[in-house]
Write a structure and sequence with these properties.
The structure holds 2 protein chains of 2 kinds.
Chain A lengths: L4 H47 L2 H4 L2 H19 L5 H25 L4 H23 L1 H20 L4 H22 L1
Chain B lengths: L11 H11 L8 E2 H8 L3 H14 L2 E8 L2 E8 L1 H20 L2
Antiparallel strand pairs in B: 1-3, 2-3
Classes of the chains: A mainly alpha, B alpha+beta.
Chain lengths: 183, 100
Amino acid sequence: MSLSKAEADAELAAIDDVVQRVRQSVIYRVSGEIAAMWGGLQFVQLAVTMLAPAHTRGWSWLFVDGLGVALTLVMLRGAGPARPALLVRALAAFALFYGFGFLWSYGLFHFGGREMAVFWRTLFLFGYCLAGLWFGFGFLAIGLGLTALIFAVYLFAGAAFWPLIALVTGCGYILCGFWMRRA
Amino acid sequence: MTEGADEIIHQPIRLRVMAALTAPGCRAEGLDFTQLKKLTGATDGNLGAHIDHLVRAGYVETHKAFVARRPRTTVKATPQGRAALARHVLFLKEIIASAG
């Protein structure tokens, strides 16, 4: 069987299109699972904040975030063939994330507890917004939607701030994670 | 020069099925029928017929199971199918190269 150049071009383009779509679905699936995992950790964070002795509460984030970073790396590693460069880049992304976060929240300004909670959560979602510019509308919608909800909690929740921020970010990440997995 | 187009893979739906199942990042256990339907844009019956065709050629294998009480068919490329797609892609690239 012989083919023309145009037919060959069309077949290669079809293959490339499918490969890109599979790649995007893998990105959505893994990102969704990671988002859902961080959502679960928001509830762990709330439980630690409520149950831990007062003098350890300020540092509870270190335990929860450390666990989150470790689990994220494990999930990325489990997502496909081991790609050391991907894990190194993910670690670098976390280092930049925490570096910028500390510079702003401790170095330049001294946020209170609530401002700190809002700042770190929205900084995390800012990453989702940027990712949306490359990987699809889903990331952007999650980033902007949850950021708006978090600001609403900050402005209007009053005394219910901590349970509500855990509920909004925890449930938000989990629901968005499942939605991304199905997308 | 390779032998020519693979007549089984040359069909558009089967080409997309094989491309999806061999794409980097595709799970080792393959893709399920619903995912393949999304990726190929085919209807249930049409996709089923093409998958049967690929199974008969030995290019893919299927696995049926029940997940949450619902039947779920997973399709996975065989080494023979991967080699056939690689040959077909090489043939396509040769056509483009020879056309200048």
